[in-house]
Design goal:
- By secondary structure, the chain is mainly alpha-helical.
- It is elongated and about 85 Å long.
């Protein structure tokens, strides 16, 4: 693990690496294709249902101060300087909104020819130095360069407010949003070329404090960040909001500023991204994930093969615990599945004996997923029940309830 040092934070960063993150690009493409992005966008262009541009333009023009050369020449020059440094040639209107919250945001233009929008809340001007404002502006322009708004609009159209998003997709969207923030941070660093500026900007955004007045040193900030990052790396902390936690963001920027090769950067980022990949919050969750795969595979293979319906049932159940369930299944399949099954059952019962019935119910659902229930599969269920301390009567009752509740004969069997 590479920790930020005093030397690194006080020196100018020479950025030669690609600001893109491979996993973020992969997730963006996967989510876009899963939501049939090209088809949906083509339909929306025909019916022109969105009034996003008009809404944001009206809001900014009516309630905010537009940054213009003759009105705010210094800040206007700063914004244009950052825009040029990042080689972003699309039109952008910059605004300042009177707001006490320490925040900024960007909105990509929906219609061709319309300017994009970057807004900075007024509270930032009392906290940030000019260089720190460059980082903020660079970050927001980074979102525009990375075209994050396009995907967000698609998601919000397909899943309006109050509409449930499938769990596996929801986790992927959250992970994509977090990685997109790290990409935008890199553009912010490219706008300043000074890691120390980025670090102080982060802590001002997080605390709302003027660090100079509070007599907080950059060395103390870095030491604090290292301590907090260690907490997350030791499998205790989680990052579950749309933005990664600050210890991850600071260390990710440190890697981007100091790594000499793309390979070194990617290796360092893998450790940080592993924190973002965590879904479960206990030892039991990992054992449960291992049981879901191993038990599902064992049950499915009783009749000779793991078919699509059975595989889909495993993936669907596992999606509550893993962002990339198929990759996790492949890892288990490459190991001794029977040993994984026995160890996971033993550990689950050690931690929570009350999960016996839940484990049995899951195995029954896998049995019924292909709409065929064989004697061999039922015998396996009885053997499992006996192994975890359930009577034949309890197993039979669970099977009967599941059949009555959710069994539907296959089309082939009734036609």
């Amino acid at each position: 693990m590479i920790m930020a040092t005093r030397k690194n934070t006080n020196s100018k960063a020479k950025i030669r690496l690609n600001p893109a993150i491979k996993l973020e690009k992969q997730l963006s493409k996967q989510i876009y294709e899963a939501l049939q992005g090209s088809v949906v966008e083509a339909v929306l262009r025909k019916i022109k249902t969105s009034s996003s541009d008009a809404y944001w333009r009206s809001s900014m023009e009516g309630h905010s101060l537009k940054v213009q050369k003759d009105l705010l020449p210094d800040f206007y020059g700063l914004c244009q300087e950052v825009k040029a440094k990042l080689h972003f040639d699309e039109p952008v209107d910059f605004y300042i909104t009177g707001d006490s919250s320490v925040n900024a945001f960007s909105v990509a233009a929906e219609d061709e020819g319309e300017p994009n929008i970057v807004n900075v809340n007024s509270a930032l001007f009392s906290l940030m130095s000019e260089d720190e404002l460059r980082f903020v502006i660079g970050h927001e322009l980074g979102h525009l360069i990375n075209k994050d708004t396009r995907l967000t609009r698609l998601i919000q159209f397909v899943f309006p407010p109050e509409t449930a998003i499938p769990v596996s997709l929801k986790y992927k969207i959250r992970l994509h949003n977090q990685l997109a923030e790290l990409v935008a941070d890199r553009y912010g660093l490219m706008a300043t070329n000074d890691l120390g500026v980025c670090v102080t900007a982060f802590f001002k955004l997080a605390s709302g404090l003027d660090l100079g007045k509070m007599n907080v040193s950059i060395e103390a900030l870095i030491a604090d960040n290292s301590r907090r990052l260690e907490y997350f790396l030791k499998d205790k902390g989680f990052s579950r909001s749309t933005h990664p936690v600050n210890p991850i963001r600071v260390q990710a920027l440190n890697l981007f500023a100091t790594c000499k090769t793309q390979k070194a950067l990617n290796e360092g980022m893998d450790e940080l991204i592993s924190i973002l990949l965590k879904v479960g919050d206990s030892e039991l969750d990992e054992y449960t994930a291992l049981f879901i795969v191993s038990a599902g595979v064992i049950v499915a293979n009783v009749d000779g093969a793991l078919n699509k319906e059975e595989y889909d049932r495993i993936v669907e159940t596992l999606s509550d615990l893993k962002i990339f369930p198929r990759e996790f299944i492949d890892q288990v399949l490459d190991s001794d599945v029977v040993k994984v099954f026995n160890d996971s059952v033993e550990n689950i019962l050690r931690i929570n004996p009350g999960m016996r019935e839940d484990m049995l119910e899951y195995m029954i659902q896998v049995v019924m997923s292909d709409k065929v229930i064989t004697k061999e599969e039922v015998d396996l269920l009885y053997d499992f029940g006996k192994g975890v301390g359930l009577s034949d009567m309890e197993v039979a009752t669970a099977i009967a309830v599941a059949i009555q509740k959710s069994y539907i004969p296959s089309i082939e069997s009734i036609t």
